[in-house]
Amino acid sequence: MQHVGSLEHLSVKNAWLTMGTFDGVHRGHQEIIRQLTAGAHAQNAPAAVLTFDPHPVAVLRPDKAPPLLTSAHERAELFARLGVDIVITHPFNHEVAALSARDFLQKLQTHLGFTQFWVGYDFAMGHNRDGNIPTLRQLGAEMGFHLHVVEPITFDGKTVSSSQIRKLIAAGQMEEVTERLGRPYQLSGIVVEGAKRGRTIGIPTANLAPDPKRAFPARGVYACRTWINASPVLAVTNIGLRP
């Protein structure tokens, strides 16, 4: 898989494309990407995903920025597992936010030459979200791409979404989070020095300092799997006050 940090680094033809924030790469996102990659590879075309960093809300309304479910690097790894050929983690800033859907799509055409565009049922893009589904169909007819709209994935009658998963994480409902992500939630961070009490009672501990922008489960003690130097071990994680 090719992973680039900007559209300007690419010159591709006949790509099949999807785009969005894709925070969490949950089951709904996965369905879009599976359909995209299956269709693209059947036609020997590259499957491309364009995502943004930082999260658009963190730029446009910093006080409302949501806690993140995945880092840009984690998203790229998840896309690779789903068979994506090209990942573009494009910088999101006020200049990008000011582009109309038409202008941004023209930029995408310049660098990707895409012919098929896959989106979720509630997708919109461009300044003031001017590129909704009906508008994108019109632009596709003008610009030479076909729009595919993927219906949502639901659990217990509710649409799977990143915002729903953040609420479940905050409530500590990790089994439901796993169902909607299709995998256990993951946090990583730097190990920082602690009081070293655990080793005195035969239970070594590691104090982790994750990215503060990430979504954290509710205070509590969780069974987990921990990777140390790429090797998994069963562990117990305490989140919150020092026990």
Structure description:
- The chain has 243 residues and is α/β, with parallel strands linked by helices.
- The chain folds into two domains: 2-155, HUPs (Rossmann fold, 3-Layer(aba) Sandwich); 187-243, no CATH class.
- The protein is 31% helix and 25% strand.
- It has eight helices and twelve strands.
- A six-stranded parallel β-sheet has the order 1-4-3-2-5-6, sandwiched between helices.
- Helix 7 (162-170) runs antiparallel to helix 8.
- The longest helix is centred in the first third of the chain and has 16 residues, at 27-42.
- It is elongated.
- The model has no long low-confidence stretch (mean pLDDT 94).
State the separation between the terminal residues, measured CA to CA. Answer: 43 Å
CATH architecture of the largest domain: 3-Layer(aba) Sandwich
**Spatial strand order of the main sheet:** 1-4-3-2-5-6
Q: In what range is the share of β-strand residues?
A: 15-25%
CATH class of the largest domain: Alpha Beta
Helix content: 25-40%
Total separate domains: 2
Radius of gyration: 20 Å
Class by SSE composition: alpha/beta
Beta-strand segment tally: 12
Overall mean pLDDT stands at: 94
CATH homologous superfamily (4th level) name of the largest domain: HUPs
Sheet bearing the most strands, described? Answer: 6 strands, parallel
Q: Which segments are poorly predicted (pLDDT under 50) over 5 or more consecutive residues?
A: none
CATH fold description of the largest domain: Rossmann fold
Number of helices: 8
Shape from CA axes?
elongated
Listing every helix as H and every strand as E from the N terminus to the C terminus, the arrangement reads EEHEHHEHHEHEEEHHEEEE
